[in-house]
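Exercise 7 asks you to align residues with tokens for two separate proteins.
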Amino acid sequence: MEELVRLQKVLAQCGVASRRKAEELIVQGSVKVNGKTAQLGDKVNPQKDKITVKGRRISTAAKNKYYYIMLHKPRGYVTTMSDERGRKCVAELVKDVPARVYPVGRLDRESEGLLLMTNDGDFANKVTHPTQHVAKVYRVTVRPTITKEQVEEMTSGMVIDGRKTQPCDVHVVKREEGRVVLEVILREGRNRQIRKMCEKLGLEVARLKRTQIGQVKLGMLPQGKWRDLTQDEVKRLTAQPNTTVITENYK
């Protein structure tokens, strides 16, 4: 008997998107199997079925060579592979990668720093799945200043979008006239979480840069450039647990 595989898993293995994003594409009606619009939960035969995403046929015959890279995302780029509004996308910065890679998680348009990209759906799912709680480190410049009480409120958790955030680590790195530099460590993947917490506290975010994911650091990689992750870095990102980080301020 021929083995059938869940459609979203096949799409992830073929480098179309992460498994969760593949599920979204299916729900949106963007995926067809043998000419018929697919439904979430459908299973397919990767060797025989014709699968298309937004009209483009997906090759399932051969296993992809997997790529795992880190990109130093500059401000002004959206974390998508294309944008209907004509905005600059991170896809433009990884054109020379020998495969179609996609972002693992997100950084909003005005944020910068470490962004992982891959064509391995299982890897992306492990890194972004809520149960993994992979720690992410951010360097955040806020204005005009921040009080001890505000730091404690961010650390203990705040209600944003109707739900309380998980506890996080907040450390004051530097205080200057009219601004404070913070190091923030999150272990959940809420949309624009730091910006929303700061907005609720009446703080202006002047700069937000992600410097580390798990044990993998951005280091001296120039803005707009990418490099391959080492085998050790890939292993570290998928290790259990991945909630502890070592930074310059936490030794």
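Second protein for Exercise 7:
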Amino acid sequence: MIAYPPEPRPSLVVVGELDGRMPPGIESVTDRVMVRSVRTPSALAGVLPDASIVLLWDFSSTLLREYFHLARNLRWVHVAGAGVDAVMTADIAASDVAVTNARGVFNRSIAETVVAMMLVFAKDILTTLALQARRSWLHRDTEMLAGQTALIVGAGEIGRAIGRALGALGVEVTGVATSERHDRDLGRVRSVEELDALLPTADFVVLVLPLTHLTRGMIGTKQLALMKTTARLINVGRGQLVDEGALIAALQSRSIGGAALDVFQTEPLPPQSPLWTMPNVIVSPHMSADFHGWLEALAEQFYDNLDRWLGGRTLLNVVDKKLGYVSGHPAPEA
């Protein structure tokens, strides 16, 4: 897909902030695009009619989907995150506006987080820290990750990075995607239609899917009941992939072994949620992807795509708006 700049100095609207910051280095593009920063509905409504590009810097903001009907000249939306669920609507999907995302920036960081979460469970680190706080010396045997099985639900770039990391530790990995195929990092990838049959085989179930109408609520009471009583669920995708009430019930009844959750149905996680105090749960505040320098990496990725757009070249990381994610692995145009 090629998006051509519609005017000599097109308008770029930056929506929101990350960690209280604008995109690092944004001043470097002001000679080529007219930059407008907005944080409120009224501000967006005032500048969107003339905007050619929207950078959804706050990837969780829903402002654009609410005011998309005002976008007369919009040609390209870039979401500074892997998931595009905050922006995708039927109107945007049906339009000729190109949507790109931050695919590739977070692969290694999320893979490292998943490995860390699995090691916390396998090596009983939560108990070790609790005992340390009480100055209690209690020797225990712990698990080896080598030889255990992990079901990685979501076989995109992040899922493959997780597969590579776990494979190096001797974990037997199976990927799950929309269709069956062979993958160099995950081996035989199974169809999501086989998920229920695969769940009873896994020691760890790792969710790394985007949120779409097909994936919302895909892990519910039935799926949790199919898992081993010793299995752990790890969710680094979206909170809405899981029926949170059903998960809490399964954890309270010990019908599964535990959960490591980086995403939740409501964020921040409400203080009254029982997930905070469960001994078999890791609560992580949606930070599995973030590393020192992540804002700079996101900004540089956008500036690279902006250079391509201004030069009339093919954009990278173009989202298939019917699927809700980047599909396939086309070679980028030079």
